[in-house]
Amino acid sequence: MFDDSAAPGPDAPGPDGFGTAVPGLDLDRFRAFFAEARPGAVTGPLRARVIAGGRSNLTYEVTDGSGRWIVRRPPLGHVLATAHDMSREHRVMTALAGSGVPVPETYALCADPDVIGAPFYVMEKVDGTPYRDAAELAPLGPARAAAIGERMVDTLAALHRVDPDQAGLTGFGRPDGFLERQVRRWKKQLDASRSRDLPDADALHARLAANVPAQSPPAVVHGDYRLDNLLVDADDRIAAVLDWEMATLGDPLTDLALLLVYMRRQAPGPGQGDAMRAAGFPSPDEVAARYAERSGRDLASLGFYVGLACFKLAVISEGIHYRYLHGQTVGEGFEAIGAAVEPLLKSGLEALEELGEE
Questions:
Q1: Beta-ladder partners of 61
Q2: Fewer Cβ atoms within 10 A, N terminus or C terminus of the chain?
Q3: 1.25.40.10, 3.40.50.720, 3.90.1200.10, 3.30.565.10: which CATH number matches 134-354?
Q4: Measured distance CA(312)–CA(131) in Å, rounded
């Protein structure tokens, strides 16, 4: 007789990772919503899986056996909706459709938390690879890695050429005083998670506050632009820019500077790999030069922006370190995050010194 005591239950995920029960997404309630929002889209039983990606929001792939969709919602148990605003992600991607910036097509937004327990939105499943590690790029060879890097830069420049008003993004952010607010915001975040004396943090903040440059013409800012937040297709083209949860209107050079800091870091942080250091990939200097050429923007004050990006990443890392010390992190690798803070702060100070700032 067949012994099914060890057989998976009907809700257990199959070999492909899809199942009928996933945390945070009630498929019956989702089906009822989506069938009304997109009549005829769903034609069979739904299954889903949680996929990696995103700074903190949960991402699911849902299928009925023929169609596939991506669903995004805030983390489980999250109560501060303003920190994980689904409508902002949905709005910016919807606005950028047809702009020349590759984004997934958006299908529906549900602002009612009673449907699955939190607001969520549904978008197109785009095929592509989010390259995170240099080992993933290595089989492509230096020439293809170079082409991907160049297209990464060109896509960022294209984003920063979008007119927010023409795209329907008026009021999406407050460009005036953006840099000053960024300096204040990250200092406030640091003060909320201090667990040790960091004199370079105070020095870097003081230097940034005293040397805010004239702001670059405002644009749509992604907020966390890097290679592993892009999907690259089989022809090495950028198929989609993902993870818009930090998007706003502001100074676009903050996007470029953060990208450069990610590229220059010797030790990647959580969720960030070393793909941009693969053989053939453009150097940080080459990235900056190509961006200047493609965007037409003045990079004379780039040292300030790099200093600000270092300060931002240092504060984020210190916050993770603080939560690790208080037993509030889940997963591996957090014990080393604290060691990344002081090198980031020193890099920020060096960026300002190279610019000759006082």
A1: 49, 70
A2: N
A3: 3.90.1200.10
A4: 23
60 by DSSP, 3-state: which? strand
Q: Pick the closest to residue 115 from 181, 180, 27, 40 (CA basis).
A: 27
For 57-88, b where at least 16 C-beta lie within 10 A, e where not — what string?
Answer: bbbbbbbbeeeebbbbbbeeeeeeeeebebeb
Measure the CA–CA gap between 147 and 131, rounded to whole angstroms: 14
- Please state the three-class secondary structure of 70-116 as a single string: EEEECCCCCCCHHHHCHHHHHHHHHHHCCCCCCCCCEEEEECCCCCC
pTM for the model: 0.89
Taking only the tens place, the pLDDT of each residue in 87-122 is 999 999 999 999 999 999 999 999 999 999 999 999
In this structure, the number of other CB atoms found within 10 A of the CB of residue 10 comes to 8
Average the pLDDT over 206-216 and give the result.
95
